[in-house]
Amino acid sequence: MTRGGAEYIMASKRNGTLYTGVTADLIRRIYEHKTKYNPESFSAKYGCNLLVYYQGFQSIEEAIAEEKRIKGGNRKNKLKLIETINPEWKDLWEEIKEW
Q1: What is d(CA 75, CA 70) in angstroms, rounded to the nearest whole number?
Q2: Looking at domain 5-96, which CATH architecture does it have?
Q3: pTM of full prediction above 0.70
Q4: DSSP 3-state assignment of 94?
Q5: φ, ψ of residue 56 in degrees (nearest 5)
Q6: Distance between CA 52 and CA 80 in Å, rounded?
Q7: DSSP letter for each residue of 30-65
Q8: Which parts of the chain sit beneath pLDDT 70?
């Protein structure tokens, strides 16, 4: 049995610090970023609390593969990816929190 997953990018602000992650529970994980559940984490230290990109997958393995692909790329490609679906850099938390 496979379990779905999501790849996501958090930002501190438009064109700011970026954090790329993967999770099997997107709502819980983004909530943890927003509340600084892990205060010593990279996202907490650098204020990455805006969900600016996410993509769901049928399996967690697919989500992990996409995360690795994105992390292996350069910053310019990450910015282009974000602006393709979220040109205004809106916080997409409101879009997903009611799932």
Answers
A1: 9
A2: 3-Layer(aba) Sandwich (3.40)
A3: yes
A4: helix
A5: -90, 155
A6: 12
A7: HHHHHTTSSTTSHHHHTT--EEEEEEEESSHHHHHH
A8: 1-2, 99
